[in-house]
Structure formats: C-alpha cells, structure tokens
Known about the structure:
Chain A contains 13 helices and 9 strands. By secondary structure, chain A is α+β, with helices and mostly antiparallel strands. In chain C, the strands form 3 sheets. In chain C, strands 1, 2, 3, 6, 10 and 11 form a 6-stranded mixed beta sheet that branches. In chain C, strands 8-7-9 form a 3-stranded antiparallel beta sheet. In chain C, strand 1, helix 3 and strand 2 form a beta-alpha-beta unit.
Amino acid sequence: xxxxxxxxxxxxxxxxxxxxxxxxxxxxxxxxxxxxxxxxxxxxxxxxxxxxxxxxxxxxxxxxxxxxxxxxxxxxxxxxxxxxxxxxxxxxxxxxxxxxxxxxxxxxxxxxxxxxxxxxxxxxxxxxxxxxxxxxxxxxxxxxxxxxxxxxxxxxxxxxxxxxxxxxxxxxxxxxxxxxxxxxxxxxxxxxxxxxxxxxxxxxxxxxxxxxxxxxxxxxxxxxxxxxxxxxxxxxxxxxxxxxxxxxxxxxxxxxxxxxxxxxxxxxxxxxxxxxxxxxxxxxxxxxxxxxxxxxxxxxxxxxxxxxxxxxxxxxxxxxxxxxxxxxxxxxxxxxxxxxxxxxxxxxxxxxxxxxxxxxxxxxxxxxxxxxxxxxxxx
Amino acid sequence: xxxxxxxxxxxxxxxxxxxxxxxxxxxxxxxxxxxxxxxxxxxxxxxxxxxxxxxxxxxxxxxxxxxxxxxxxxxxxxxxxxxxxxxxxxxxxxxxxxxxxxxxxxxxxxxxxxxxxxxxxxxxxxxxxxxxxxxxxxxxxxxxxxxxxxxxxxxxxxxxxxxxxxxxxxxxxxxxxxxxxxxxxxxxxxxxxxxxxxxxxxxxxxxxxxxxxxxxxxxxxxxxxxxxxxxxxxxxxxxxxxxxxxxxxxxxxxxxxxxxxxxxxxxxxxxxxxxxxxxxxxxxxxxxxxxxxxxxxxxxxxxxxxxxxxxxxxxxxxxxxxxxxxxxxxxxxxxxxxxxxxxxxxxxxxxxxxxxxxxxxxxxxxxxxxxxxxxxxxxxxxxxxxxxxxxxxxxxxxxxxxxxxxxxxxx
Amino acid sequence: xxxxxxxxxxxxxxxxxxxxxxxxxxxxxxxxxxxxxxxxxxxxxxxxxxxxxxxxxxxxxxxxxxxxxxxxxxxxxxxxxxxxxxxxxxxxxxxxxxxxxxxxxxxxxxxxxxxxxxxxxxxxxxxxxxxxxxxxxxxxxxxxxxxxxxxxxxxxxxxxxxxxxxxxxxxxxxxxxxxxxxxxxxxxxxxxxxxxxxxxxxxxxxxxxxxxxxxxxxxxxxxxxxxxxxxxxxxxxxxxxxxxxxxxxxxxxxxxxxxxxxxxxxxxxxxxxxxxxxxxxxxxxxxxxxxxxxxxxxxxxxxxxxxxxxxxxxxxxxxxxxxxxxxxxxxxxxxxxxxxxxxxxxxxxxxxxxxxxxxxxxxxxxxxxxxxxxxxxxxxxxxxxxxxxxxxxxxxxxxxxxxxxxxxxxxxxxxxxxxxxxxxxxxxxxxxxxxxxxxxxxxxxxxx
Lengths: 379, 411, 448
C-alpha cells in the first residue's frame, strides 16, 4: 500500500504542476495585455510587459531641447529637464544619431560656434551660446537612461473620456449595451415557447422541425447579411437598433431552441402529466411549471447570447451602422486598430474596456452557463 | 430619441408583445375559436390541441425561416447567377467553375482542411486533459474558470491580445512579444536541442503512436470481429483509418523535420508570415478560445462516469492512465463527439480571427474569409455565394448526422 | 439629491457650450480666408432642419479635421451632417448600397470602386456643368474631371464623382538631422537615390523603412511603390494602358517595375527588419523607425498623409521632412508625380445632398482644412498662403512642378484587382514569389 500511496503523491504533484502550466498558458496572453494597459507607450515598446516591475535601461528616442533663452554673462543659456517625471538616471548621452552615447552624464559637449551643452544624470540640461538662439533649431539629445517602473491609469483616462475619433469608448459602451440587452431577452422568450412545443406537445412534423432547427445551427452567418439587409430596407426599418435586435434574435434562435428543448425534455414527465390531469392548460403548465424549472437553461442561454451579442462585430457593422450614436465597442476597437495600430497603450486599454463586461458577466454567472450547456450535450 | 431609452421601450414592447401574443392567442383559441364547452366540446379540445403547438411555434418559425432559411435559398440562387449591369443572368455552374480555377480558393480549401483537423482535435484534447486534471485537485474550479475565460473575449479583443504575443521587433531592440522573447533565448545550445528538437520529436512520436492505435482500433473491428458490420459503417471506419494514417504520416514527417530543420537562432520571427506555419499560429488563437468550452462539457461528462466501473478497474490493478483511457474515455465517447462537432462548426464559420490578424494573406486564407472577400471587397456576388454554398456543403455531413441523431432520439 | 441634479445640468450646459465653441475653427470674417464664398453660400442656401448622412474614409484625427470643415457647411446651409466611417469602409459602403440603404453622400478614394457602383446604377450623376467647372477651376482640371466620369447603368458616361482633397504620393520622408549627422545629401535623381541606398548600407545603416501591413488592406503601400517606379521607367502612356487593362498586368514593363521595387524591398540590408519584415510591419508603425535611437532607417517613401502617424510631437520641417521621390536622369521621362485623392458622390437624391456638392466647389470648403493639416487641393481659387505648414506648401509645389500627374493606379483598377489581388500579389512578392509569378496571378484575376 505504501508503494501506491507514494506514486499517488508524486502523481498528485505532477497534476498540480501540469494544471499550473495549463492555467498559465491560458491566462498569460490576457494578463500581458492587462499589464501593458497600465504602462506608458514608451515603456510598452521599450521592454516586454514581464519586465514591467524592473528598472529598464534603454536608449530613448531623441528628445529635443526646448525652453526660452535667458541672457547671461554676455551670452545666452537655456535650461530645463529632459524628463517630465523624476527617477530616470542617464548613463550616457550624445547629440548625434551616429554617436548616441558619446558623453558621460555631466560632461560638456562642444556644439561648435562656441556653444556647449551639458546633461546631468537626472536629465537636467544647460545649453550655452555666445549668440542668440532665437528662431534656431535646437539640438537633440540622445540619452541612454534607466527608467524606474511606472504604472499609469492615464491610458484608461484617455480612452474613456477623450474622444479619439469623435466617439468616446463610453458612448460605444452604451451603444453596445443598447444592442445586447434586448437582443438577449427577446429570443429567450420566443425560444422558450417553441422549445416547450417541441418538447412536450404532440403534433405531426415535430421530428422534422427539430431536425430543421438542428440543421439551421450550422448556417454560416455571412451569407445572410445582404438578403436580410435588403429585407430590412424593404419593410422600411433600414439600418438601426430595431433591425439589429431582430437580426440577433433570428440568429440566436436555433441554439436557444436546441438548448432549451434538450433541457425541457429532461424534466420529469409525471409533473406535467399530473398538471394536465388537474386540468391545467398548456399555457398554464408552461408559465407555472416549465419556465421556473428551466431557469438554469434559460440563464445559460442568456449568458451565451449576451456574450455573443456583446462581442459581435459583423452583424453590428451590417445592420446597425457606424455613426457615433450607433458604433459598438468592437467596431470602435477595430477602428482604433486601424488609426492607432501601433499605439499599444491605447489599444490595450480599449481592448480591456471592451472585454470587461463580458468577463464580469462570465465570472459572476458561469455556474449557470455550465449547467445549461450540459443539458444540451451530455446525455 | 435616446437609444438607451429606446432600448428600455423595446424590451418592454418586445417582451410585452410576446407575452400578449402568446397569452392572447391561447385565450382566443380556448374561449372563442374552439371553446371546450357545448355540444362539440370533445372535438373542439382535439382541434385546439392540434392548433396550439403552432401558436407556440409561430414566432420562432417565422424568424427562423426569414433569418436563416431564406438566406440559404437566396444564396443558392445568387450562386447560379451572374450580375450583368443592373440585372442578373442565370449562368448555371459558371461561378463554381470560376471559383475552382482560382488558386486562392484551393489555398482556402487546403487551409480549412487543416483547421478542421487541428482545431477540434487540439481543443478537445486540451479540454479533456484540463478536465481530467482539474477534477483531481482542490483549486480545480478556479483553474477551470481561468481556462474557460477566453470564451468571454470577443474575437477582436482576442486578436489584439495575440498580436501582442506574436509581436516582433528588430533584433537590436528588446522584444515586446512574449513568443519572440522566448525564441530569442534559444541560441543553439543544449536547452535549444532539448526543447526545440527532442521535446517536439517525443510529442510527435507519441501523437503518431496514439493515432495509429486508434486507427488500428477502427479497422480491427472490421477485420476480426464476428459481428456483422454494415457497409456504411465499414466505409466510415475505413475513412477514419485513412485519415488516421495520413495524420501518422504528417506527424512522422514533422518529427523528421524537427530533427533536421536549420533553425534561425537569434533572428526575431514574424510568426504570422512564415508560410504554412503561420496557419498554426492563427489556429492557436481559436484553440485558446475553444478549449475552455470543451473542458467544461467533458469535465461534467467525466463526473458522470459511474464510480463502480472505475473502482472495479482499480481493484483489478489498472494504473491511472489505464483507468483514464480504457474506462473513462470510452464511456464519454458520445460527449467527445458532440464537443468535436460543435467546435468543427465554429471552425467553419470563423473568419474574424483571420480577418483581423492576416486577412488571409501570407497563404492563410480560409473559406469564410474568402467568401467575405469575394462578397464585400471584389463585389462578386456569384463567386461569393458559390463559396458560401461550399461551406454549407462541408457542414452537410454534420447536419445529416445531427438530424439522424435527433430522429433517433425522438423514437 | 438636488445639488447633484444641479451639478448634472451644469455639466450638460458645459458640454453644450463646449460643443458650440469648437463648432467653427476659424471665426468667420477673420484671416485671409475666402469668406465671400462662405457668405454667398450662406445666402444662397437655407435648408434648416434637413439632415444628410455622409460616409467617408476619414477616421481618427482626420475625422476631427473633416468635421471642422463640415461645421462651416452646417452653419451656412442649416443642414445637419451625420458623418461616419469605419475601418472596412469600402465593404461597408458596398453592403449598404447593394442592400438599398446607402448614405446620402459618400466619399471614397477609389475611382475604380465608384465606377463599379455607378455601373450598377447606385450613384447619381452630378449636374452636367460640373465637369466644365472642374476643368476651369482645378489645376490639370480635365484629368480630375476624367477621374470622376464613368459609364452609368445605361452605358452613357457622365460625371458622377467630385474630387475633393488630393494626396501627393511621390514623397520620401527623412529626418534632416539624421542626414546631417551622417553627412548624406538629398538625392536629386533616381541614380543618386540608389547610390545613397548603397552608401547607407555600406556605412552600416539601414536605408529604408517599408511596411505593407494594413489590416484588411495589407499590401497597398507596395502598389504605390510599383506605380511610382513604373512612372519612372515607362512613359505615362504605358501607365494609362496598364490601369485600363489595354496591356496585360503581366506585361514585361510591369514585371520590370515590380522587380525594381524588389531591388529596394527584397534586399535584406536595404530594409529595417530585413525583407521578411516588410510584409508584416504595419504601415503606420513603419515611419517610426526614422525617429528612433539609433535610427532604424533613414528614408520612408509614403504619401502626404503619413505625418499623422509620426510620433507625438514630431515637428515637420525640423524633426522630419520630405523630398521628391526622384526620377531617373538617364531616362527622359520628366518628373512624374503619383497622387491620389478622395471623390465625393451622391447616392440618395436630396436638396441638402446637392447643396453639399455645391459647397465642395467653394474655396472656403478647401481653405478650412488646408489651413490645418494633411490637406492639399488642386482648387485654383484658394489662397495658397493659407496652407497650414511649409510642408503642405512644398507638396503643392511638387504637384505644380509635375510634368506628369497620374492617379494611384490600384484605385483605378476594378475592385477585385486594385483592392484585392494586386495587394495580395505584392505581399506574395515580398514574401518570396517572383515578379512574373505574381503578375501572372493578378492578370488571371482581372474580371472579364
């Protein structure tokens, strides 16, 4: 027995380690973006997010000296600091892209024509010139500096409250909520009735109908776009919220009916038969017995549909439009990827704003999600 | 009107409207049309019961027909027509012929086939692994929700996340993409050999062996068993074995490649442009998303495996691996198939990832994105619809199988 | 509760006044703007309460700029303009137009795509005299009018689209100080440019930053290269035949131009990150290499809009500048210029939409934008002193000094090629295929 216990504990260790590895693999990509969203743009491109907590020594982009000249000792001087925030330590600097680390901190560089420049370790500079510098191009400083770790909420501040392209993320956020909430509730209701009919009512063609619904589960959405938009224009609702609610309802129905029917079929038969014997109508059975009992499946589908409508891009682009009062979060994010493609600080923060709600919904309600899903697939 | 207010009104109207419809129509049926009273009470009850299911189903059928069935028919029709000026003209299968002659189409088909094999297989395998492992530990539920988390992230969000992972910078500056940062650590020494050659070879050989074993299992039944095997089943098993054989071949050739490959150490890689392999970097994103789904379902199925079968096996001296593969897996085979097919459907429909990350360039085109390209970029309705029909055709086996199952269940 | 309510109204009031304050960028009547044209328009149109939707390619900073111009139109005419755009605006417009819910007015940078829409009867022709107006009031007006003239659904040609806003594409961007530090001179001929490229490599630097990545449009920056090089190796006549498919895409002249691009982009030492990085580097990230330390590259060939993507705080003229992408001295082809532009067209008939098209003719509609940034116009009635920067003025000069001006060829070709296979072919080319191979593929994809 000892032997078995021994292998068991070593096996348990292996299990723990493997799970840790798996979880890391699944979480790290998202975590990396999360960390990045709290760093400044320079830091993100300067070092990997995993180094966010360590001091970084790197060659900074050239910084141009600026400031008003002050007459002094018959000449002129300009004084100032290279960095906005304190803490950076310069290890070398230069004034030419060819020799970016020609000088040690505190050394004096001769710029010709009697001009000199010196940069201290903390980034304070002093430029002197015998003649006036007004109207002239001032030199650039190439600094190699160690910058301490720094986190900022500025990125979130930017994406949430300052419109980058006429529309704030907050506005997009509201639009998305406006799309997602009705598009979640309406299909549930319609599907619940249909599912009940398919599960507990007997009528010719039922099997065929179920088969058809299963078949519709696999229809690729893209091919429905144009015929449906044509239809919306034809009946006069055009592009707008009404249209997208209807579209999401239509697209969500097969899964809704499929999941709910599978769940309802599994409900105990005698409850329903007893109710029928007691004279309850189908409508009463449905509202009084089936609906409350099906709560897990309803919740599960609601979460599914909510995630899908919240995260959707294509349907929104086609049926809703892209004005400021219509653009949804995913659309806004794609636009940002286009116009601010390289600005990771903006991208990462907006990506997180857009996934915050689905993640919250998911973590709060995942119990239901799992329960309803199982009804549909585990026999 | 304020959209938020509009939304509240819609919820009210939509929900209220539905309730009024369902309640009202039932009331109408019972009280006015066929009241279960009077001389015809019996007949009326029967008639009402014949009509009622359709009242319940009516809104769903209208919406399904309009939003899903009608587009399929419309697309079929479009795929047989060609736009000429403002009108269109019936051209039979000309659009299909034109599509077949395009290199990009065959590239999409080929890539799609790889996607269809790799993504469901890997997602299911990882899901099964995660399910089995997390069920055995205390913090399993936390681990599960973390692995499940990507399900909640939009494809657009996911592509931002993975673009950062795959990011590549000049060798002279620090890498900010995790994958390149790891890659730059390898320099050809002993660790490189261990991780980039030995480990993949071992994994690939193990995979080949497992697939060969499964394939043999498929054929063995036909060859040895005394029980009569239907012709259709024979065919299916033969096909399965062939696919298995092909997978073994691929795995072995990759293992061989991993030994021989001349790896460009110290050069940052543009993962999304390496021909052929970039497909796998795209697939990784979908696997990352779908594994959680597979895990949750399979974990529930595993818990449903009767304890006594497991105990019996343990008493017989089976080790944990044998218990897992010989006792548990066969019992949840049905669920595995469900998970597999669900993910297969997702794979066929998915195009957001490809669109956002490579847009089908660098030889990563897939059918769904090819169709989108044809429809909305080239404005070619005929060929676009034809490729949509190809996607429909590819899901047809799953459709048939689903319908077959649904009917079996009904009986 | 009460205080909160009051605070709420205060915020609302603030927001409203803020919106008003930013309405008009330059006060009417001040500065050297052509306010007469504004006032004349103001008097001629009174369409209070009408609304049009405008769909265009401008997003981000450009959207702010175009909205600053639209504010004047709204103030003068009383029309409310709902401007919108999206990342895949071409696809979106096709979907909307086909489905029957187009915007009132749309703006696209691709004449080829507009022609495609016009042929399906989805675009409304402009007033017949507009064509003559363009010829009279635009520099090289006849060629601009030709860009907007296509056969309609019935086959008769008419002016459908009005060019508004031009881009000069034949520009090479660089950091003057990096050139000074290394002692490089601005090349005046293509021979010198190639020599400079080789010299930078010999000095241990990297001459070019080239990035083709652009999401769904990945590949387009390379089409500009090829077009520019074609104009420098062949007569404009060949260029016209190429864009109109009178000569096949895989004509030796075109293959040679693609190979010429390959000389720059497919030599590892010539491009930042090596040839492999060209296809995947985002075109918006690519110019940042000019300003890094050490510089990742010295030159970047891109159109006049690119400063929007320079690092924040970059000053044109000091931190960055450009020179004309030169022509071969050895070939007698003058100094050709490749350009592009956006064209506005009416998709839904309304008084307000027509008024908007008239508005685009007024000098003030151009001046408001050109006094800011990123806008060059061929309109001859504008005050050129208003250009917001020296750089814009210089681009205006390049446009004026051009012996040949040609519109971006990929935008003239059918959408399937110009916004499809040509892009993909360029990606395939830089990722390894031969020029002949990719040209053959594009030729095969040309719609019959």
